[in-house]
Design goal:
The protein has helices at residues 11-15, 30-34, 38-53, 60-75, 91-107, 109-114, 118-133, 142-148, 179-183, 204-211, 264-276, 295-303, 348-359, and strands at residues 138-140, 157-158, 161-166, 169-174, 190-194, 197-198, 218-224, 231-237, 239-240, 246-251, 254-259, 282-286, 311-317, 320-325, 336-341, 364-368, 376-382, 388-397. By secondary structure, it is of the alpha+beta class. It folds into 3 domains: 55-136, no CATH class; 155-240, Roll (Pdz3 Domain), CATH 2.30.42; 246-397, 2-enoyl-CoA Hydratase, Chain A, domain 1 (Alpha-Beta Complex), CATH 3.90.226.10. The longest helix has 17 residues, at 91-107.
Amino acid sequence: MYSFSSCPQSIYIAVASLAIVSFHSTAVSQERKSNLSPEQQLLLNAQRELVEHSVYGLQTHEIVSGMLQTLREELGEWSARYFPKHIPEVFGESLAKCMEVMRELANSPEGRSQMWSISDLIEKALGCYCRSLDPYSDYLTAATARKLEDLANPNYIGIGITFKKENARILCRPFEGAAAERAGVVENDELLAIDNNSVNRLSLLEIAALIEGPPQKQVILTLRRHTSQKVENLSVDRERVKSLAVDVSESPSGILTVIRRIDEKSLEELKQLTESFPPNQALTLDFRGCGGGDLGVSVAIAELFLPERSPIAELESLKGKEILLSRNNHPYIPKKLTLLQDRMTASGAELIIAALLEHHAKRAESRGERTFGKGLIQRQIQVARGGLLEITDARIYGPTGQFWDGKGLLPTSSKPISREF
């Protein structure tokens, strides 16, 4: 199962659809595997998943070398003396060298003061390496992954906020009317710390895990304000966050459908709505603030408006390329289609916009801002003896081959978004 899991607003959605892949080792024989330490097995298991699934075509020795290099950068200059200048390309030798480094770091004065185990350091190195591949790949410890499971519930306990990374900065976008907005958080405030713990070098999933907690208990956000650039602390009460999937309203100019998130619930609601829409109506789909979700759901939402055999997207992975086509015999075809987008419109929402604009070119337009720009797909894999790998295992292209990752999609119309929207 593919997921656009690390983009804004889809953080808790993606966890609900984990692609759990069982481990069947072919890297080592069962006899050799039984002689390996738990730490070595964890490292081998994670390496195997990266080699088999990463779209970047990684080799085992590259992973070991990358883990050591990025861990050294993470730990700083004090650690340099523990790292070799050269990593052997022979698998067994590189594995042995990696374990040697981890043991020396764990036994160093700094390692003992931090109470690092060899497993802790291997997991830290995996996280550093995965995050170096792209903004969405990551490795989460088992404890962090378990905490994130609560975020799979749309009514999770939090403060009603999403984040996006922009040039290493973590920017905020509060939900309308939720606790964060009521406390004074505004869009594009920069998040610096949570409960006085710096968020520098943390992934969006780790930040989400820190935000989640017991209801009624406050969380302290340290923010650099968007307008004044002053650094301030805000105390925000955690609460049960209720996020509607789809909201529909009608006006003289047509039907406005706001899609807040992409998941099975929003798909089911949209199916029912399209069946009830009167024919030959103007339709506006509002994807502003929608950070995407599962690839299959995104494709299914696009299918609601695309005739059978219409191209939706092209998927590129280690297995090659796959063209995704609509299978809908009875799509809803609006008289006019308007798509609303902004800087937080990402991944699955971008896929839908690209697909609908291509097919409905003569009567469709998009308005707003350049979108976020995420065209990479992640697979979440539970690593045997370890935590959760989030691997970028595919690239997604639009029907005409457009690749919007890192660039976003420009609106096709310069018309402003009117008040009725």
